[in-house]
Amino acid sequence: MSLAAAIGLVRFPDLLTRMHAGTKPQVFGLLLMLTAVGLENRDPVMIPLIALGWIFQLLTVPVSAHMVGRSTYRTKHLNRTTLTQDDLQTVLNRAAEGSGEGAAGAPPRAQPGRPASGRTAD
């Protein structure tokens, strides 16, 4: 699986597809490594620690990959021709059309020559 991930990291065209190839074998490889540590150690105390380490990995890898992918999308460092469905653009367009505020209720950004509040300086 690591070899397939390495080939994917080299051959895939943009960051989103490379990220997909890089995160998939990570969780399974860690499970195999932790299983080997548990079998080598043969101490029952290690089983909860190994399970906790693997569960932590299961919870954090998708979140970190999601954050990297979202920042890649927002900074336009992706190849749009490889996208088959673009749900995030719809969400961003709806947020921009909303009440004039940015995403998640953030205040509007300041434009050059205008303060962020929208009022002009006297």
Characterization of this structure:
Helix 1 packs antiparallel against helix 2 (15-41) and helix 2 (15-41) packs antiparallel against helix 3. This protein is mostly helical and 122 residues long. The protein has helices at 2-11, 15-41, 46-74, 87-97. The chain is elongated and about 60 Å long. Helices cover 63% and strands 0% of the residues.
Query: What is the molecular shape?
Result: elongated
Largest sheet: none
Helix content: 55-70%
Element-level helix/strand string:
HHHH
The number of distinct β-strands equals 0
Tell me the span between the first and last alpha carbons: 64 Å
Number of helices: 4
Q: Classify the secondary structure makeup into a structural class.
A: mainly alpha
Mean pLDDT: 79
Percent range for β-strand residues = under 5%
- Radius of gyration, whole Å: 22 Å
Low-confidence stretches: 117-122
Protein topology:
Layout (H helix, E strand, L loop, with lengths): L1 H10 L3 H27 L4 H29 L12 H11 L25
Summary of the model, kept short:
The protein is an all-alpha fold and 122 residues long. It is 63% helix and 0% strand. The N and C termini lie far apart (64 Å).
Features:
122 residues, mainly alpha, 63% helix, elongated, disordered C terminus
